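Please, structure for the following, as tokens.
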Amino acid sequence: MSVLYLVVPMAVVIAGAALWAFIWAVRGGQFDDLDTPGVRAALDDDDAVRARR
């Protein structure tokens, strides 16, 4: 039972840190455009091969 006095505050601190990191990422614009990076990764291969030649 005494382990709860240690685990519960640690869980609250970790959850708070995760929430802070999520809010920081949202305000920083990390989730603004979710489609373009995937498309860019699929289409950039041909251009990189041509640039090396």
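The chain is about 75% helix and 0% strand. The chain has a mean pLDDT of 84.
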